[in-house]
Amino acid sequence: MFAYIVRRVLFALPILIGVNFITFALFFMANTPDDMARAQLGAKQTTPAMIQSWKIDHGYDKPLFFNAESPGLAKVQETLFVQESMKLFAFDFGQSDSGRQITADIYERMWPSLAIALPTFVIGLVTNIALALLIVLFRGSTLDTATMMVAVAIMSISGLFYIIAGQVLFSKVWHWVPISGYTEGWEGFKFLILPIFIGVFSGIGAGMRWYRSIFLEEMNKDYIRTARAKGLSDIKVLFGHVLQNGMLPILTGVVVVIPTLFMGSLIMESFFGIPGLGSYTLDAINAQDFGIVKAMVFLGSVLYIIGLILTDISYTLFDPRVKLA
Amino acid sequence: MNLLLLFKKSLPNQSSGFCRHLLGILAITFYATGCSAATWNNPYSADQANSQTLFSSFSESPKHLDPVVSYSSNEWAILSQVYEPPLQYHYLKRPYTLEPLTLAKMPETTYFDAKGKEATEAHPAIAFTEYLFTLKPGIQFQPHPAFVKDNLGQFKYHHLDSDALSKIDMVRDFKQKSSRELIAADYVYALKRMALRQNHSPILDSMAQYIEGLTDFSERVSKAYQMELSVNDKSTQTHFFDLNKVEISGVQIIDKYHYKIRIKGVYPQFLYWLSMNFFAPIPWEADAFYKQPGLVEKNLTLDTSPVGTGPYQLVENNPNKRMRLLANPNYHQDSYPVDGLAKGADPSLLNDAGKQLPFIKEVIYSLEKESVPLWNKFLQGYYDASGVSSDSFDQAVSVSNSGSMSLTPEMQEKGIQFLNMIQPSIMYFGFNMADPVVGGYSEKQRKLRQALSIAINFEEYISIFLNGRGVIAQGPIPPGIFGYQEGQAGSNIVLFDWVDNRLHRKPIEIAKQLLTEAGYPNGRMPDGTPLTLHYDTAATGPDSQAMLSWYRKQFAKLGIELVIRATDYNRFQDKVRGAKVQMFSWGWNADYPDPENFLFLLYGGNATINTNGSGINSANYDNPEFNKLFLKMKTMSNSPERLAIIQKMTLLLQQDAPWVWGYHPKSLSLYHSWLHNVWPNPLANNTVKYRRIEVQERVLKQSAWNQPVIWPIIIVLFVVIGSIYPLRLAYRRRQKASIKTVAKNTKSEDI
What we know:
CATH topology of the largest domain in chain B: Dipeptide-binding Protein, domain 1
Largest sheet of chain B: 8 strands, mixed
Low-confidence stretches of chain B: 1-16, 31-37
Number of helices of chain A: 14
Number of domains of chain B: 3
Structural class of chain B: alpha+beta
Oligomer: heterodimer
Distance between the termini of chain A: 6 Å
Radius of gyration of chain A: 25 Å
CATH architecture of the largest domain in chain B: Alpha-Beta Complex
CATH class of the largest domain in chain B: Alpha Beta
């Protein structure tokens, strides 16, 4: 397995270089260093001398991919792309264009994001699986049909509606929880209840339908008939056999998202005032802060690759037939 | 009321013991996790809600809190509570009036001729103006670790090792803090920091035009700093450059409490700049302290953790969550104004006259990116004040047929107060005067612009797109600024008629007549094809489509076809700077309350086309007569003579019409009855110190407005518990049915 992981990590390098290249190309197609300087310095009173000085200080005076004025290999080395990419591969994210340390910012913001994303993910997963099993238990009944109709209805409504309706109902009308805000520690619990509830609820429709279809497929297999023929109750069949064997397709979709959980949710965090990473990249794009954009795109790619590797590894844990070589 | 009691009261008597037990657990969970006893939805702790704490919000994270860098209103809202420039605006007086803040008196002004001899203000060729500043003695900086010295007199925290740094995440983590007296050298040090090119002060190049020796100093010191950075292979954030060793020729420290600044020629507006944070004092110890790499890695820099003498100190800076200010225990003698109440202002604004400031002990600014939660929290009483977004306008404000605004009954019932103020700003529709069609100074070209100015009905725009929150502009100078004239005297006779003491836009027929005289009868070119004009805008979102359609309709009134060229803001700026636009919209907020700050937007010397894109005159208006009058007016003190010149300039502008004089926006602010001493002053930013809160009233109202509604919890619990039994029954039936089916099937197979 170790050799497999090393091989996957080595395969990841050209992918990350490619992602980086595209990020640099796209960003500088939309923004020039002069635009970036103006965004940081403000529109009033900004002079060409100030813009030039800002560019030199932030390294944006260098050519993007090819430095025609430098000799030999330096034509490529003394470029913004190579110099900044090297730092990224060393996980040195440096500072944002407004002067803040990106690593410190990420560290500070990842915990609030996790405080919402992790419980939402775990509770959502457990709830969806439990409800799907319940529906499978009553498959073909009126309850099954009614629940599926409700699930489709839940899926069809925008997440934003749940957020605003939840805030109005639970905070404004019934006064149960604060509308928005965040605090560290146990005091923060009151701020997390509503976003977690909404996160779980809005995901029930799609999650439950997907898991139901996985479990129903398992229910029709021969080993289930054998188990039932041996006299096992439906509950024992579901929890003892269907759930375990249904985990493989569930893992495909679930493990890959685990590493990216701390990247947060843009809309949820914006509406609930959660100081997470959800809006970090988008705010940086709006502020033309390339320091943050390149770091977050790189980090997101790394985490996605880690997620894929973890998914492969988790297969071996749940299915002994799968071997990584 | 105790929460458990509240539960017991709200529960029906017949509810089950289990249900009561469960609700009790829920109640205890809420109580234990910080919800106040009376309200569950209070986002603050009970201590904070019960103290002199102002709860406010911000929607955009502050990027810079370094006073020589920061130039945004959202940053100044915080920074101005911490730093103190030499001057401030009087809180209540109108027109806006400067007064000493850390100075014992207003700066003493001396004029000099070219030979260095003292001259009078009336001297025709003043070469220099010298300002002498006298500081109040005894002003102390806020307590800060940068000032702490050990027994040997060395700075204790200026060389932190990794062990010490491991225990530090915020400035408040330092065990010891100290202070020292504010001296003249701190103001001069701030000026030197501004001159350091690597600090990227946005006003360096503007100030270099005026302060003697600043250009030379900036070039010399910036070069020397860059050399040091290269030699030591360090960044600007981590390398301290001792500015105490170098001097600016035009700035002189006389003694502990006196310093002088020498200005080239005459520039009376310089005093206004001295009320801005760029000129706030910086203790060199703080600059040196924050250059430690270990602190920089933790985002502890002068740009994130200010050190000032103001009424508050920033104790928490999380721009993604919350900014928290605490009253500065070292704050100097500063009292609430005893006079200067503006005409029509509420007399209760003087109830606290003469009392020591600040009243509020803590300020919490929470990040609220979305308007819905912000507005609802204000209505719940969890924010003390709020603006009015377009989403909540109808809920908050009623507009009468005459256009006057008042609060809706819902707001009045809550005791909410309302302030409505015209901002010292202008939003305009500009013509590029360098364009061969809409620009130029010939009679025909002028008539085309006048016709378009009549056709674009900004009264309608204000009504449709701003809910009436704007005042139609008659020229570039907004109300409240010297040179603005109300009523008939200030009306733009090219666009309006003064009838029955009111402005009436000239009929569209006049515009059509002007268009014909301009050579475009019915909006047609001489060859009969429709006149097509181009409007550049950065408004690309779906929300902007209605506004762009409205512009098209305004032009269609004259038979002119308007082509919208929408692009992103970067490209839009590039096009305006390169004079590659025909028509565009833009705006300007006052830096200071002087007509020069608006008229310079149309001075030929500032035209983008004449300044390689760096000028502020985006319309490229360049009328020699206007330019001459501007240069004369610029250095004059406010006087009838200056007013007469401004009137002449305004008349020229109205005739030439380089802008369609759009509107001056109105800001509406709402605040709760427990917040006192609220008075709009858009040019002063250090206004939190004047505010006062009736804490008891706030607590009572918050409690009354936010009592939790219990019955839905009970219903949900009954539904959940009630559904367990039928489900269990259904499952058993299903199990039996399955067995029967299997048994039947087995029988039939046997047969």
